[in-house]
C-alpha cells in the first residue's frame, strides 16, 4: 500500500535511518573562511593539493587538543572520492544514500551524520547520540511516519537503523555506553569496522608510507610521494581519531612470540604516547559493550596487512596473522581482510557476519553491500540474509602511492585461476565511465593487472568476473613533471 509522499508502491519502512561514514568520509570546512579542507573534487588532488602545507590546516591545534572544538566543521558525507597514502582511497556514499532514499516513505526518515573524523571517537559518538535521538523524535512527529506505522503489523513507532562504515561503526558501538540510546536502536549495520583496530594506523604514525617502495625509475612519483608521506605523518600524529584506530589485538611480531602494541611502541616510532594511552583506555571501556542490533558486513579475500615488526623507529607490515597452536607453538597464517582491516579485527563475538570480497574504501558503494543494507532496513521482522553465493572471490592490491599518468604500473589480482576469467577497467569515479582497460596477465604464478592512467587525477581500478559486484580500489595519478618542493 503506497503512502502519500513515499517514492512509489514499495515496502514501507517506518524506521528512522542514519548513515554514519568512516574516517575521511565527511567533508570538512574551515568555519572562519569557509574553505573546504577535505572532500575536494578529484581534479584538485591532481593539481598537487595533497602537500604537507595543505594538510597542515587539518592538524589539531592547541585549543582542539584541549577539547575546544569548532575551528573545523563537518558539513556532509563525501560526494567525491578522496585519497591519502596508507589509508588509500575512500569512495563517496552517494550510491548507498540513493538506494536508501528509494525505500523510505519520506526523505525526512533518512539522515546523514557527518562528523570531524580527526577528533576522538568518543566525542563524535556523544554527538551522534544527540543527533540520532533528535532525528528519531522529528521523524516520529512527522505525519508520514504515522501513516507508515499503521501499516506495520504491530503498529509500533519508529526505531533507529544506523548504517555505519569503518570508524563510524565504533561510534555506533559507543552508543551502547550512553543511557537510553541503545534501547531505541533496531539495527546497527557496520561495514568493515575495525573493532580491534588496524596496523595501517601504526604505519601512518611511523612514516605515512606504503610498505612497498616505489621503483627507482619513478623519480617524479618519488618526489611527490615524499610530500604526502611527510604531511601525512605530521598530520596523523596530531589526530586522536587515528590513535583510536590503533590495533588492540596482539599484532607485534617478535619472531618467537607476538604481543600487543604499547604506548612505548608508539613513542618509539615518533607518535604521541599520551594519545595512544587515551585510545587504549577508551577501547577498554568499549570492550564491555556490543553494538545494539549488530549486523556486521565484513570485507574479505583482499591482501591485508595484519601484523607488524618495529625496529629502529620504523614499521614493517606483514599479511601474516600470528597465533599459538594447541601445543603453544607460534604459527603464522594469511586470513586476509578488506585491504585495510584484517578479518579478525572486524569480527565481534556473538554477531552473525556477512562476508563479501570487497576493498575497504569501496565497501559502502559495492552493489552487494548496498542491497544487503537496504534489505535490513526494509525487513525488521526477519533475520538478515546474505547475498547469493558465487563461485569465485577476487582480491585486489593496487598501489597505495601516486603513480605517474601515462606510465605503466601494475596491481596484483588474487582469486583467479585464469586471467581470462575476469575483466579489468579503469573508471572515472565521478562520471562512472570507463576511461581505459587494464590487461590481466599471469607472471610467476601471480595475476597482475597491467595499466596506465590516461591523465593525472583519482581513478578507480575495477576487476569484475567473480559473480559478486566488482572489486575496486582508488588509484591517484600525477604528472611526470610534478614539483616535489613543499614548505
Describe the protein's architecture and organization.
Helices cover 25% and strands 25% of the residues. It has an eight-stranded mixed β-sheet with strand order 18-20-23-22-21-24-25-19. A six-stranded parallel β-sheet has the order 7-1-8-9-12-17, with helices on both faces. Strands 3-2-4 form a three-stranded antiparallel β-sheet, with no helix packed on it. It has helices spanning 42-46, 52-55, 62-65, 94-101, 121-141, 143-151, 167-174, 200-206, 219-236, 240-243, 263-268, 273-286, 367-378, and strands at 16-20, 26-30, 36-38, 72-77, 82-84, 88-90, 110-112, 160-165, 185-191, 250-253, 258-260, 294-299, 307-311, 314-318, 321-324, 330-333, 354-356, 395-397, 403-404, 409-414, 423-427, 434-443, 446-451, 457-464, 471-478. The chain has 487 residues and is α/β, with parallel strands linked by helices. It has two domains: 16-378, no CATH class; 395-478, Sandwich (Immunoglobulin-like). The model is unreliable at 5-10, 208-228 and 381-391 (pLDDT under 50). The relative contact order is 0.14. The chain is built from 13 helices and 25 strands.
Amino acid at each position: 500500500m503506497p503512502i502519500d509522499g513515499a517514492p512509489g508502491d514499495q515496502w514501507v519502512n517506518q524506521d528512522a535511518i542514519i548513515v554514519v561514514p568512516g574516517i575521511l568520509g565527511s567533508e570538512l570546512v574551515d568555519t572562519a573562511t569557509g574553505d573546504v579542507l577535505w572532500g575536494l573534487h578529484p581534479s584538485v588532488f591532481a593539481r598537487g593539493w595533497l602537500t604537507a602545507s595543505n594538510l597542515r590546516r587539518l592538524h589539531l591545534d592547541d585549543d582542539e587538543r584541549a577539547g575546544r572544538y569548532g575551528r573545523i566543521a563537518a558539513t556532509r558525507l563525501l560526494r567525491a572520492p578522496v585519497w591519502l597514502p596508507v589509508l588509500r582511497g575512500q569512495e563517496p556514499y552517494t550510491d548507498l544514500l540513493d538506494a536508501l532514499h528509494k525505500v523510505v516513505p519520506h526523505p525526512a526518515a533518512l539522515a546523514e551524520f557527518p562528523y570531524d573524523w580527526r577528533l576522538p571517537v568518543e566525542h563524535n559518538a556523544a554527538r551522534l547520540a544527540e543527533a540520532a535521538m533528535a532525528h528519531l523524535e522529528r521523524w516520529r512527529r512527522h505525519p508520514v511516519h504515522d501513516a507508515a506505522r499503521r501499516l506495520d503489523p504491530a503498529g509500533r513507532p519508529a526505531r533507529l537503523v544506523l548504517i555505519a562504515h569503518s570508524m563510524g561503526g565504533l561510534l555506533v558501538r559507543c552508543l551502547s555506553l550512553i543511557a537510553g540510546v541503545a534501547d531505541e536502536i533496531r539495527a546497527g549495520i557496520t561495514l568493515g569496522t575495525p573493532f580491534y583496530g588496524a596496523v595501517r594506523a601504526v604505519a601512518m604514525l611511523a612514516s605515512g608510507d606504503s610498505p612497498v617502495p616505489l621503483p627507482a625509475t619513478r623519480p617524479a612519483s618519488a618526489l611527490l610521494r615524499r610530500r604526502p608521506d611527510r604531511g601525512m605523518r605530521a598530520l596523523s600524529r596530531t589526530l586522536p581519531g587515528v590513535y583510536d584506530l590503533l590495533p588492540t589485538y596482539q599484532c607485534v611480531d617478535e619472531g618467537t612470540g607476538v604481543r600487543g602494541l604499547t604506548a612505548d611502541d608508539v613513542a618509539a616510532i615518533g607518535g604521541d604516547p599520551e594519545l595512544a594511552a587515551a585510545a587504549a583506555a577508551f577501547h577498554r571501556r568499549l570492550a564491555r559493550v556490543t553494538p545494539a542490533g549488530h549486523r556486521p558486513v565484513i570485507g574479505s579475500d583482499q591482501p591485508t596487512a595484519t601484523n607488524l615488526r618495529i625496529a629502529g623507529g620504523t614499521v614493517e607490515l606483514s599479511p601474516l596473522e600470528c597465533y599459538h597452536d594447541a601445543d603453544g607453538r607460534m604459527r603464522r597464517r594469511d586470513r586476509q581482510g578488506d585491504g585495510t582491516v584484517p578479518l579478525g579485527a572486524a569480527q565481534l563475538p556473538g554477531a552473525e557476519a556477512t562476508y563479501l570480497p570487497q576493498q575497504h574504501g569501496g565497501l559502502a558503494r559495492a552493489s552487494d553491500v548496498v542491497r544487503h543494507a537496504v534489505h535490513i532496513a526494509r525487513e525488521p521482522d526477519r533475520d538478515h540474509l546474505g547475498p547469493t553465493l558465487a563461485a569465485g572471490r577476487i582480491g585486489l592490491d593496487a598501489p597505495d602511492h601516486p603513480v605517474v599518468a601515462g606510465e605503466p604500473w601494475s596491481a596484483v589480482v588474487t582469486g583467479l585461476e585464469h586471467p581470462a576469467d575476469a575483466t579489468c577497467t579503469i573508471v572515472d569515479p565521478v562520471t562512472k565511465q570507463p576511461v581505459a582497460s587494464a590487461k590481466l596477465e599471469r607472471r610467476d604464478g601471480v595475476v597482475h593487472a597491467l595499466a596506465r592512467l590516461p591523465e593525472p587525477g583519482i581513478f578507480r581500478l575495477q576487476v569484475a568476473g567473480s559473480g559478486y559486484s566488482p572489486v575496486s580500489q582508488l588509484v591517484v595519478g600525477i604528472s611526470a613533471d610534478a614539483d616535489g618542493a613543499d614548505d
